[in-house]
Each structure stands twice: as structure tokens, then as C-alpha cells.
Amino acid sequence: MELRGWKYEGRKISEKLHRQILEITGILKDTEKSGGRSWRSLQEYMAEELGTKPGQIRTIKRMMEEFGILKKGVLKSSEIPDREQIYTKDGRLLLELLEMEQLMSQCLTEAHRQQMGVLQEIYRLCYQKALISYTCEKGMLHPLKATLKALKEYEYLDYWEWYLLNTVIRRDDDVGQEEELGRLIEEYRAGKLSFGAGAIVENKLSHIYVPGNFAYGGFLLEEGDHLDLRLTLNGEYRELAEKIINER
Amino acid sequence: MAGEAERMIDEQIDARLRKIMEARNLYDSAGHMPEQKPDYRESSPDSSERRLEARKPRRQKLHPLNQILYGAPGTGKTYATVEYALAILENRAVSEGPASYQERNRQMEAYERYRASGRIVFTMFHQSYGYEEFIQGIRPGLSGETVSFQVADGIFKKMADTARKDDENSYVIIIDEINRGNISRIFGELITLLEEDKRWGEQNQIAVTLPLGELFAIPNNLYVIGTMNSADKSISLIDAALRRRFDFVELAPRPELIEDTGLRNVLVRLNRYLRQELRSTDLLVGHSYFIGKQEKELGTVMNRNIIPLLYEYFYDEEAKVKKALECISGSSFEVDDTGNRRIRVKEKVSQ
């Protein structure tokens, strides 16, 4: 059986990504730096400033679209970005917070430390919102919902079960696909089904990026890596998980 | 899939934003916030005992319900509120072009008519403005010969109550210098009610019981226009709670509106320098100081309006102010840095 991972962007939510988003938005905001440049030329400039490659800037841009910070498709290669129009409302909020945090970090008082702690909580909540809305399969599938549903049903998922989930579930709440997944997991856990190298033929790093982001959002816990991977629900957000599972 | 889960997260974000907002305003929120927090309830008009009149969802969506016009001093923010308010009440797009003398007169006449009928209210926030003046408070009054205390509605509550009962018309409250007031103190917990989807009549409408017992909601036909001087406070530093509930419209300096070519060039050169030196679009000079003026008045405008601003922008660093004043080169004025006073400009002495 061939296994296929869900589509992902090749970046995980992390402190480094936070910082890069902040630097990119800083350049976009600074008309001295970005004024008059097309997005294509800006990518090269940003890559130089951030010490990375233009391809990475494009990935971060797509992450920013996925997280609902940037409006989708507003940064076009040949056009000069209109800094007033490119951000979503939630995106503006997140950027305000990132800027506020940067200012606070320049003057680290006890009050600022406490407020920065609250900001971290808000980031996590913003990312939770973004992860709930994150879709693939042309909007037909909400991977977070599918993952939470499977973890609730099967208690945990290991490396191969993660790819079984990805391969079989391609639409939200599709009873036929869910029954098929149930049957395959049962066979796999009974030792009647096994996989070897080369079984995964598409999106082979999905087990790193997708659950990695869900774990960063607090929805699940990750233990081990690669073949030893084990995903379980994070009890702290059980109520929220239930709400996501039950949403139509 | 934007349902209950997202609402649950939004509430948690709001709670944390309020926490930060209050922390950032500690020095004046203490003792000013209403002690009793409003009792929030999501309610449909039929389920509440002391119910508010039902309203239909908003059809007119040309304009955001909450917007702030921001820009450097002299960019015509307060001037523009007239056109923005009229555009809302007349359900048309905002005219961006310059208004002729006659057009402006017509605008002002219409504005005055709406103001007289109570559909436009203009107010200004200042540092001691509070919840009691804006929403509701207890004020002393004379009853016969004795002083008694009565509940008095503030300007915002009065307008919200009137608008809520009117199914036909829109209403506009203009809050000049919105960033000078302490938002958390003035709106208290009611800031949540400003959000478009929580306005009375909309899907997630919310009514609250005010500290003095009355049921209150902000209707979906009450528009709020604020103005904000971005030189006072960069918009990236304003309270996050306010930031996320308003749309922001930048009013930039528009030298093309200045008729006198010499003055127009002065402003263009000055702003080019400020932008380069201060690396900000917040710390510029607007066109309104020069509107309707001629070059012979340059000295008065510079000495009375622009130079004090430049001293503020450059934190009294005279060398930079002097450098900024190179913008007048080519005019019949020159810099005068003699004497024990601030730099001025004076008319060149003809040889």
C-alpha cells in the first residue's frame, strides 16, 4: 500500500519563525526599504537582510498566509506591495503584538516580563485559530479536526498510523473514509499490515511539520521522532478539541 | 469552520488583551474603572426579560462601523471627519478629492443639519475624560433646595440609545483625539460591544447590564469615527484592544493641495528630510498649515507652527532643526539663529 502525507509548508511554527515574520514585516513597513520595490525584488532584499534564501522568504510568506496574517495572494511578483492592504485584521493584531513584544524586550522591567508572558499565551491562541482554519485538499479537509478525531478514537497514533490517517482521510467527516481508516488501523495494530522503506510516496515529511505545528498550538503531545513517533491528545485542551471535533 | 471553538479562543484572546491593556494603563485606571463589571450576556431580543428593541442586521456595509483617521499634524484629520460622517449618513463613498469653497460650504451646512437633528455628535477625548462622562455616571443635581445625586447618561450612551430605536437612519459619533483619552477608563468593559459582529442587530449581538443596572447595547447603525495624531503616538503603540476593533485610515500630507508653488516646494522638501532623518511617516508636517497662504506668510507659518513642531520632533536638537529648515532655501526667507532664543526664519534683507 502506498502512503501519502498531507500537503504542508516546509516550516514549523517556532521562535525563529516569529523573529523572521517580524523582520519581514519590519521591512514591508519601512517605506525607505520597501518603497517602490516589487515583491520579486523585495524577496531578494529580504533574503539578504535575513541571511537566508529567497525561497525561504516565499515559504515564510506562505506560512503568513496560512496563519491568516497576510491576505492570500496579495503579494504578487511584479507588483509593489501596498502595506495598507496586505494584512488581515487578525494579522494586524498579531503584528502589533510582535512589535509590542520587541519594544518591551528592549526595556525588560518586571511588568514587561509579565506582559510578555501574556503575549506568548496570545500567540499560542492566535496560532490555534490559524490551525483550526488550516485546510488542504482544496479546502475539503481540516487536518487538525481529522487528527483530533483520530486521536480521540484510537488514543494514539504512531508514525505509520499518521501516514495511514493522511492517506485515507481526504475529506472532513467522510464516514466511508473514517471506516476505512478504522479497518486499516485495526489490521496494522493486529500485525496484519506493515510498511517498509519507500512506502511513503508523497509529502514524506508530513509527520514532522503537520503534527509539529499542532503540538506547538498545544493540541497534541509528540513523543519520539521518526519511526518512534507517538502522538496523543493534550488533556489541557480537551474541551477545545471536543468543540473542534464536533464542528460542522 | 469558524464556530464555537474560534469564539472560545477569541474570548481568551480578549481576556488577555484586556489584561495587557489594563497593565499598560495602570497609573490612571486605578480607581477610575467602574468597580462593578458589566454583566455580559448574549441575548436574543425575545429571551431577555428587560429586552431591548430588536434590530435587523446591517444592510449598509459601505463603511466600517469603527474607524480611526490618523496622520501627522496638519493632515486635515478633523477637517476630513465632516466628509466621512456625511458619506456614512448619505450612504455613499467618501470623496477623496479637494472640496472647493462652495462644496465645503455645502458640506458644512449638511453637517450642521445632521448635528442639529442629533445624528452627528462631535466630542473630544482628553486626559481626564472618563466613563462617567461617556457612558453613565452619578452626578449631583438640585432638587428643590437640596442636592441630590442622579444617574446621568453620558454622550455615547445617549446616542446609542437614540440610534437603537431608529430603524431608518445611521448615526455618527466623532471622537477627536481619541488616543488622548484613556480608552480602558472611558469605555470600560464596553469596548467589546463596539465590535461589528457584537453590535445590536448583528449575529453575535451582546447586551450588558451597566453598573447602575440598566441594559445596554451598541446598535449596528451607530458609526464611530476617531481621529488620532500619529506624531503623539505611533499607531503601533496604541492599545491593542483599540487597535483590533477599529479600521485605520491614513491621511498623509498632500502638498498638491497647496496653491502657492513656493510653499508647496517648502513642504515637499521638509517632509523629504523628515522622512529620511526620522525614518517614520508619523513625524511629518501636514499641508493644512500652508493652505490658503502665500509665500510672504512663510515666516509666520514657520515660526508659529512648524518650528515648534520641529523642536518637538528632534527633541530640541537645534542642529537638526536648522538642517530641516534648509527647506526654505530658494524662498525669500532665511534662517535666523542669532540671540538667546529658538531658531526662527526671517525675511531676507534686500541688498
Brief synopsis:
The complex is a heterodimer of chains A (248) and B (351). Chain A contains 11 helices and 5 strands. Chain A has 248 residues and is mainly alpha-helical.
Task: Describe the secondary structure blueprint for this structure.
The complex is a heterodimer of chains A (248) and B (351).
Chain A: E1 3-4, H1 15-29, H2 31-34, H3 39-50, H4 54-66, H5 89-105, H6 110-133, H7 143-154, E2 156-158, H8 159-168, H9 175-189, E3 200-202, H10 206-216, E4 220-223, E5 230-233, H11 238-246
Chain B: H1 4-24, H2 26-29, E1 39-42, E2 66-71, H3 77-89, H4 101-116, E3 120-124, H5 131-134, E4 136-143, E5 146-153, H6 155-164, E6 171-176, H7 183-187, E7 206-209, E8 215-216, E9 222-229, H8 240-243, E10 247-250, H9 261-278, H10 298-313, H11 318-324, E11 333-336, E12 344-347
Parallel strand pairs in B: 2-9, 2-10, 3-6, 6-9
Antiparallel strand pairs in B: 1-7, 4-5, 7-8, 11-12
List keywords for this structure.
heterodimer, A: 248 residues, three-stranded antiparallel sheet, 5 strands, B: 351 residues, Rossmann fold, 11 helices
Helix and strand sequence of chain B: HHEEHHEHEEHEHEEEHEHHHEE
* Unreliable runs of chain B: 25-49
The proportion of strand residues of chain A reads 5-15%
What is the count of helical runs of chain B? 11
Assign an overall shape of chain B.
elongated
Average per-residue pLDDT of chain A, rounded, comes to 88
- Rounded Rg of chain B: 24 Å
Described by strand count, sense and barrel closure, the largest sheet of chain B is: 5 strands, parallel
Largest sheet of chain A: 3 strands, antiparallel
Secondary-structure-based class of chain B equals alpha/beta
Class of secondary structure makeup of chain A: mainly alpha
Q: Largest interface: which pair?
A: A-B, 33 and 28 residues
